[in-house]
Design a protein that fits this description.
Length: 241
């Protein structure tokens, strides 16, 4: 489980052994609330560990408003997803070498992977906060020298928004605008594992039955069988000539 402060990019990573809502709430309290100032709002993805029990625990006991990410942007935070990618890569490399035989050995390997993945934090967040570290921004002190630091939050916010705008313009530079419509045929992207790289990456075509305003559409997989899917997982179907 990765927790990030979007203002300073300060990150904490802790393993979830059971993946339950109560365990996730315990991690938030022990890892973040007990060490840092209480946040006003907590934004999560749509994972099962952030269910109603997690919301009740934070909202009723701590007074923290819990909000979930939207269907159009299912990931909670891009830096968090980058950290998760690093953790997955490290696990695939270290696990065969360590070959854990017990539950305790497995936890030790996970802790080692999480500590190694923390090195990806400066790479993922340096563009938004310049030469400052997340720790220096959070504690207002230099991490190497015992001297106070004053941070201009206005300049930091401006730099962050400028970076977001530049990345958005670069990503949209070569995109072709397309609005999906009812009865249009589309192809659905499928998830491929390492052993399935030679299989088709799209299936279909499928007919669109409903277009929603939150970036999702409903497609007809089979007669009377429908699926709501994000527009990022489909592409227009072009019939062969």
């Amino acid at each position: 489980m990765t927790i990030i402060d979007p203002a300073t990019n300060l990150i904490e990573i802790q393993p979830l052994l059971n993946g339950t809502a109560m365990e996730a709430a315990d991690v938030v309290e022990d890892t973040w609330i007990a060490r840092y100032p209480r946040p006003v709002r907590c934004i999560t993805d749509n994972g099962p560990e952030f269910g109603q029990e997690f919301r009740d625990r934070l909202e009723k006991n701590l007074g923290i408003k819990v909000r979930s990410s939207t269907a159009r942007n299912p990931q909670g935070n891009s830096i968090v997803e980058r950290i998760h990618q690093s953790v997955g890569l490290i696990l695939r490399v270290i696990t065969p070498e360590e070959n854990p035989r017990s539950f305790e050995d497995g936890k030790r390997v996970i802790r080692h992977c999480l500590a190694t993945a923390m090195h990806a934090c400066p790479c993922a967040s340096s563009g938004a906060i310049g030469d400052l570290s997340p720790g220096a921004l959070a504690f207002h002190r230099d991490m190497l020298l015992d001297i106070p630091m004053q941070t201009d939050i206005t300049v930091l916010t401006t730099n962050r928004q400028g970076m977001i705008d530049r990345n958005l313009l670069r990503a949209n530079a070569k995109r072709i605008k397309h609005d999906y419509a009812v009865d249009e045929k589309v192809l659905k992207q499928v998830s491929l594992g390492l052993s399935d790289k030679l299989k088709p990456s799209y299936t279909g075509p499928y007919r669109i039955t409903t277009v929603l305003t939150n970036g999702t559409v409903t497609i007809e997989l089979k007669p009377h069988i429908y699926e709501r899917i994000n527009i990022r997982r489909i592409k227009p179907y072009r019939a062969p000539i």
